[in-house]
Amino acid sequence: MPFRSYIKTHHPKTFSTLKNLRSFIYSIMAQIADENNQSSATAAAADPPPPFNPLTPAVPISYPLKTLEELESRAYFKSFHFPFNQSTVKLPSAAALPLRPRTLVCHDMAGGYTDDKFVQGGANPDAYAIWHWYLIDVFVYFSHNLVTLPPPCWTNTAHRHGVKVLGTFIMEWDEGKALADKLLSTKASAQLYAERLSELAVALGFDGWLINMEVNLDPGQIPNLKEFVNHLSQTMHSSLPGSLVIWYDSVTIDGDLNWQNLLNDKNKPFFDICDGLFANYSWGEDYPKLSADVAGERKYDVYMGIDVFGRGTFGGGQWTTNAALDVIKKNNVSAAIFAPGWVYETKQPPDFQTAQNRWWGLVEKSWGTVQNYPKVLPFYSNFNQGHGYHIYIDGEQVSDTPWNNISLQSFQPFIEYPEGSTTQPIQVSINFKEASYNGGSNITFSGTLADGADFRPRLFKGDLLLGKSPIHITYSVKSTGNSLLGIAVDFTSAKEEKKSVFLAASGNTLLTMNQFSQHFTHVIMPRRVTKLDQEPGWILQESSVDMAGHTLNEIRAVCYRPKQESHAPLQYHAVLGDIKITFGQISNFPLSSSWILDSQFVVWTSGPQGSKRLSAKITWQLKEGNADFVKYNIYVNKLKGTSSEGAQEYLGEATVKSFYVSELEVLAGISSLKFVIQVCDVGGVLQKLEDSPSYLLKVEGA
């Protein structure tokens, strides 16, 4: 056992003292660094930027609360940034967690609030993200601030995939002890702060809290601590059915900061009044079973911690994280994976995409998938990971600016990557450089394939019971030569009979039937094929499938070549842009006249040669009703009189009904700005720009 872990486990009070000493040293180092930075800044610029003021209109960001005064006063709700930080994607169901071993993932990436803090997106195409949501039940956003509020991008994409999201409430070091004294001063104060935390979670749309009290307490404070945990659990459950409060294994029922590394009589009193225990990482091989024995019927509510950095964790973490997962799964309890950002922070070779897929592949091999989709219709995915180098909309490029915004993650494919030296004829990858159909990426299939051969990589694992209406599956594809790309959909009947339907690419029907009829229950040719004019190469293929009473279990791509005389392997290349599954219904968008649009916090500043810069908040709301859409694309037309000056400019995407325009350049001669809000529904359909609501803002002084 490493020395640090030995001290933490066997001499917890000494470890706590050392932590406080480290905190003091770090504070001195930080003060010195700040002084050096201030000196450098003074030399570089006479006017350093002002300190952050949450009341001042600015580019919307996510940020934590650092004091109990902020929490008690509800100051956050007065912040300019609050409306932008509300998540808009609801969980498909408020049901309790499934009765099986679960996977909790605790984010803890580089201290938190990095590229992900920019609510409307940032400019880092290589920003950190998680896309293996089908392996996760609960996601915790973690930092070392008092109240860690998850940026809405994480909540939006996690909810889309059926994953619950928790914020973190933490007290540590000497500062944390002083805060705990205030929190636990009375029963009423404990209840007050619990209610404030519940209020924040409900208002921002996430699902509960991880509570981490890493401080020594007086035994007399424990009753109020239990009241805090119990009241938080009760208020969360009553305000948000299906919500969670999870206790981190830290302070004991005796008030000692003494990590137990399992569920026992020292921490079970807290476990009994909340939804689970996150056990510390330094456990032995028999600890999961011992914890399960103590938990009884609630064994799945015990989450055994695994530190991916390997700091005193069973199995060593890192590339052997699966060793701990195997032991946890064997003993039928749950896992808490801490800091999977290790892959990103330590720059694991050869690159983040490859290393991330390989690492999560170990998790899947040990644990299996825990989420399935599609579960409901309509279902849409453009395979967007929430970062990239360009933006395309319906095959047309609207931006070539690098970007990141996890809120824009689409349903993520269940791509299987070969281990080690294992080879396969076609390499499957998420491609960020080649032209996309929608968003900033696509799935590329590239390699060699003989005539008459096929390759069937997994795309999605579903759980969708079909009714009497047929479903319509549409996908966009580009390919070279005789590289053909179809879709295979696997079903089971009510009698557990397996059936497989092949949606072939457009081509010779007779040859296709001869090639695949023996391998699939049904072979269906596309009912409609559309070739796009604005982007040569993209083809939309639509097929109809009638499998009433069957359950859709899996969707695979089918890479193939038509049977010809040659059997030698040839180069294969095809690109899948997006996929859509609906009942064939037509999207109905509100008329543009149904919306009320406005501008707020409008600020004009003068620039060179008569130009100006605009900062303003643009808002939109339906006059009647409150229909929610997946997202809104924001454009601006710069007008001279009534004529447009240049091309329509894409500004970004919003998930809430507001967008902050920051420092938009307006050249001399422009008289007004026409902002266009393009609505996108859950099925990936966009309202036509000419039918979209718009707002006209006159240029100051024009």
Automatic annotation (TrEMBL):
E.C. designation(s): 3.2.1.96
Cytosolic endo-beta-N-acetylglucosaminidase C-terminal domain: residues covered: 588-700
Reactions this protein catalyses: an N(4)-(oligosaccharide-(1->3)-[oligosaccharide-(1->6)]-beta-D-Man-(1->4)-beta-D-GlcNAc-(1->4)-alpha-D-GlcNAc)-L-asparaginyl-[protein] + H2O = an oligosaccharide-(1->3)-[oligosaccharide-(1->6)]-beta-D-Man-(1->4)-D-GlcNAc + N(4)-(N-acetyl-beta-D-glucosaminyl)-L-asparaginyl-[protein]
Main location: cytoplasm
GO annotation, cellular component aspect: cytosol
Keyword Hydrolase tagged: yes
Subcellular location(s) per record: Cytoplasm, Cytosol
InterPro entries documented for this protein: ENGase, ENGase_C, TIM_ENGase
Entries under Gene3D superfamilies matching the protein: Galactose-binding domain-like, Glycosidases
Gene Ontology molecular functions: mannosyl-glycoprotein endo-beta-N-acetylglucosaminidase activity
First-tier enzyme category under EC: hydrolase
Keyword Cytoplasm recorded: yes
Keywords: Cytoplasm, Glycosidase, Hydrolase
Gene Ontology BP terms: N-glycan processing
Entry superkingdom: Eukaryota
Domain Cytosolic endo-beta-N-acetylglucosaminidase TIM barrel positions: 113-390
Functional note: Endoglycosidase that releases N-glycans from glycoproteins by cleaving the beta-1,4-glycosidic bond in the N,N'-diacetylchitobiose core. Involved in the production of high-mannose type N-glycans during plant development and fruit maturation.
Record family assignment: Belongs to the glycosyl hydrolase 85 family.
Protein name: mannosyl-glycoprotein endo-beta-N-acetylglucosaminidase
